[in-house]
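hey can u check if this looks right to u? its 227 residues, i copy pasted from the old doc so theres a chance i mangled smth
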Amino acid sequence: MSPSPIPATLTLQDLHDRYGLERVSANPFFGEWRQNLPELSDSDKLLLSRIRQSYFNLLDHVPCLGRPLQTVVVSPLLFLGNFFTAPFKVQEESAQDIELEDDGIVFKGKLVILSITAQFKVMVVESERLALPMSSGLGSMLAFMLQQLHGQEPCYGVLVAASNFIFVKMQRQAVPLSTPDPLNTENPMGKVHFAVSEAFSTWGSDDEFYQMFQIFKHFGYLPAVSP
């Protein structure tokens, strides 16, 4: 029997109270975003610079960052990382409309989750304006990642909002049983930990954007992450 869906509108406190989700320091729990990153070729760097230029051109001429954000930034990153070729299967797994109100102004947007591999997900916060913050999608991203956990295998994700990228790791931590069982020495329902990387911005330097893509590609090709 498949597990019941986890509501995507839960707050971080809800996720903690209901599912034992705890935020921990990225060091040492989430060191993967700094380690063993792939090298980039000169042609990779050229194309990444063009993606940034396209993004800024988008801001100059398009009054919203809805589907154009996914088309001009996210899709080219997936293409450059060879994620549209076998054995990868990029799929849109979820799309949810959201609204936020600030001083009487309602900002509308959409949270779109793409599956790159079984354990690597991308969430794009599409918005009518630049106002939707990264935090508007984090709870939903974590709720979705909770559904993807299998045993103690980690799950990774990247949250994209306006010009910003953050990487997320989630993993269930085993808890020893009070009465050891020789056939099952760990409790699979232990607490779930998550941590986030530093934020990367399209507005930063080319080098910052290059590093973001190195991490993006690294998680897609981790041996433990299978398509």
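Residues 79 and 85 are 8 Å apart (CA to CA).
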